[in-house]
Amino acid sequence: MKKNNFWYSIALLLSVSGLTVPALAIPPAQVDSEAKVAQANPVWPKISLTKVVGGLEQPVHITHAGDRSGRLFVVEQKGRIRIVKNGVLQSQPFLDITNRVSCCGERGLLSVAFPPNYASKKYFYVNYTNKAGNTVVARYRLSGNPNVADSNSEQAVLRVKQPFANHNGGQLAFGRDGYLYIGMGDGGGGGDPQNNAQNPASLLGKLLRIDVESGKTPYAIPPTNPFIQKAGYRKEIWALGLRNPWRFSFDRRTGDLYMGDVGQNAYEEVNVQPASSTGGENYGWKIMEGKHCFNSTTCNQTDLTLPVVEYEHSLGCSVTGGMVYRGRSYQPMQGIYFYGDFCSGRIWGLRRRGKVWQNTLLLDTAYGISSFGEDQVGNLYVTDLYKGDIYLIKS
């Protein structure tokens, strides 16, 4: 098993999480600039985690439905979606498709996304690995019970063949534009052997954007997608050059997109796409790993968009992308992007002051951080894959 494999061994977690490690290093050229802007908000919050609920099996995603019900929906990797209501894990699954799902490793039921106006539409979307090992994005509908979906109602939206068992990506999320964004890994195998991430004819190693709400079957291509008029490019592509985007999210206030991309041998990274972007960014893999040429001393970085922050594998081995806090309960956390590492259990904070990105280590945990999520009022949560617990992030 490679050191950077997403489901890294518990042994490394135990050996790494006990170390005392300084905050992520910031390039020297930024130090003076950061000192000048730090006065605007010089103090990082002291955060803690409070257990909200336990008893889950391999939770890998957590979200809400935007329906004012107060429910949290937690995706279990083996193929179930569970509901947490008023702090209580409901015994009956919201959705159970374990008979369709190939699990585990980096395969499984990997995320759920609820469309705008879900309360009236009564359907939602999931991303899972089927029994053949390929990615399926599908729509499911509610049964007569609002807490139970009809597992026989599947309508496949998109299928993508996976050449290897890892790097499936798996995130679904709706943007402010109403379109569905899909994170696709490069298909696996060390070093992207098929060069999928830089191949414009492949959907692998990309962030896709499709219109699943237009009524067109199975989906429509948004007319403003960046490569819609470019020969040789799949029209679904919104951005390319990704290795394994494990969790991306939209800042609910600004619309900016934050994305963690799991590295290969040496570096983990976080990319940020401003809401003003018209798409088409190339995030560099496998030309680059983080801010460094991959397997070469030199490389052509023309037209590449480099990450806003990276960290070395001495601090972890698999980044878990997080979310920007926009709730009202913990003002010291306001505007900070929280993200973590699955292997080391560390949680960092990232924020922008002027043109400078500031980054610091906020908490060192013993958890297998598989996902961050938020409820409808903006509280942030983190999932522990190992014990099946969900924690509220507080300051």
Care to describe what's here?
- This protein has 395 residues and is mainly β.
- It has one domain (10-394): Neuraminidase.
- The chain has three helices and 27 strands.
- The strands form seven sheets. Strands 2, 3, 4, 5 and 6 form a five-stranded antiparallel sheet that branches.
- The longest helix is centred in the N-terminal third of the chain and has 10 residues, at 28-37.
Given the helix and strand composition, which structural class is it?
mainly beta
**Poorly predicted spans:** 1-39
- Number of DSSP helices? 3
- Strand share of the residues? 35-45%
Find the count of extended strands (DSSP E, 2+ residues): 27
Order of helices and strands: HHEEEEEEEHEEEEEEEEEEEEEEEEEEEE
The number of domains: 1
